[in-house]
Amino acid sequence: MPTSYRQPSGRGGESGARGHKKNKIHYTYFLMFFVVVYLVAQLIIFFNNDSLSYVVARYGEIAETFQTQGVVIRQEQLVKSPAAGIVQYYYPGGKEVQQGSLVCTLLDDYYGEILEEKINELYAQMQEADSGEYEETFQALDSGISSSLASFLRDKSENNYAALYRLEDELEDTVARRKDLYSLMSNTQITSLLSQQGIYIDEQSSVQSNLYLPEAGIIDYSYDGYEGWSTDQIGADFISNYDASYSYLEIQMQQIEADTSLYRLISSPVWNIVIFVDEEQAQYFSGESSLSFVYNSTETLQGEIESLEQVGDNQYKIVLSINTRVQEFMNDRIANLVFTKNSHSGIKISESCLVQQDYYTIPSSYVVSSGNAKGVLVVGSDGNAAFNEVNIVYSDEEKAYIELPEGLSPGVTIQAENSTDTTTIQQTETLSGVNVVNGGYEQFEVVQVEYQAQGYAIVSGIELYDRIKIN
User: What are phi and psi of 297, to 5 degrees?
Assistant: First the structure.
């Protein structure tokens, strides 16, 4: 009988199919895993190489600067009351007043506690007083507050505590001036109300003394106790010993005692800054009559060098004279100054791009050409000279800096072209350069460092927009 053929059962066929599917799934997962790993690796290489390892050569500037602190000195005096009484003011702080102007009046304290009580009572009613008389000045002060806040926010950095304290001083000063204006406005209305209520018999008979300005100047209602000091009195230890700050006077109509501070008078727009520097820093000022500097990190001022003298071992005292903007800095006694002497411009790169490499040096006269190749004539053991190509990295009229190819060792003798003169390749010198990466390949380029400071260098020898590798 013929042998019968038996069909495989359905279960066995399904089992083989399932095994085949499992193998396909395993291969798919493996392939996907390989692709993901490859893409991640390429992304890491891309970001490391293209985003972190290169900079573009651009035109820039490096300035020679140094920072120090100075002491501000003005022609100023603190005026005090000659007697006790009720004081009435007529001008806001920061106002430039002509000589002979009536600054304030001392009223006779005849009415004693009745007058003082009445003044305090009327002050309580001044909440909705008319501010029209000083409306423009109020608006200017409000603008100053907004400007100070905007400037701070623009320049704010994480640890810029100096800017924060400066903002505090500016706002405190501006608020004090707003308070001055409100007090003056209140004083005028209080005088009128007192007169209407019969508290004043006659102003002329109640006036104890009128205080007139002895000379033209700017009046201010703040002080730190160093008014009247001259530049000669400022020593090198002044800043370290200075522990004062500006206090603000109340200029509302009030009862005062004799010898009470009334106002500060700045009698000249010319003011001085005294600084102390070492001998190296003093070179910045040598031979200069005027210079500009950054004042408290925000303002650029122009000053004249009034004097420069040596006052100790490696210590010099410099007095600068400024004849503008005294009103803007009337509450500064200590200032931060940044001076710039010279600036250097050109292609500016990070110092971290610079590379120092050693190369063999030979006299430039020993470099010969053969077709498009450059090299040297190497003297063999038989005394004959044969051309050998070398890589000339850099050359000038005197020297050529070269790399030796394989098969050519240091100490080899070379011969000058059309001459019997010989020398050996043995000495090395260091060249500064950068690794330029243009078009996907890296090439060392020699640069001349024109100036280097603050983490940057001005160089020549490369082109604008070259991609420079960071080492």
Answer: 70, -5
- DSSP H stretches of helix in 223-295: 238-241, 279-282
Output the six-digit token pair for 418. 């059309």
Task: State the Cα–Cα distance between residues 255 and 150, nearest whole angstrom.
Answer: 39
Q: How does DSSP classify residue 50?
A: I
| DSSP-based three-state secondary structure for 218 | strand
Contact 295, 72 (CB under 8 A): no
What is the chain's mean pLDDT, rounded?
80
Q: Is 265 helix (H, G, I), strand (E, B) or coil?
A: strand
pTM: 0.57
Specify the DSSP class assigned to residue 454: T
Token pair for 50: 């293209």
Residue 241 structure tokens: 């010993």
Which residues are CB-contacts of 464 (< 8 A; sequence separation ≥ 6)? 57, 58, 59, 347
**Amino acid code (one letter) for 36:** V
Residue located via tokens 């004081």: 87
CA distance 335 to 159: 19
- Choose among 69, 61, 60, 62: nearest CA to 281: 69
pLDDT of 143-171, one tens digit each? 655 555 555 455 544 445 555 555 556 65
Q: How far apart are CA 418 and CA 366, in angstroms?
A: 10
3-state DSSP assignment of residue 31: helix
Whether 119 and 85 have beta carbons less than 8 Å apart is answered as: no
Do residues 428 and 439 touch, judged by C-beta distance below 8 A?
no
Rounded distance between C-alpha atoms, residue 79 and residue 81, angstroms: 7
The residue with tokens 């000058």 is 416
**Token duo for residue 417:** 């072209």
Amino acid at 465: Y
Compute φ and ψ for 359, nearest 5 degrees: -135, 155
Rounded Cα–Cα distance for residues 16 and 21 (Å)? 9
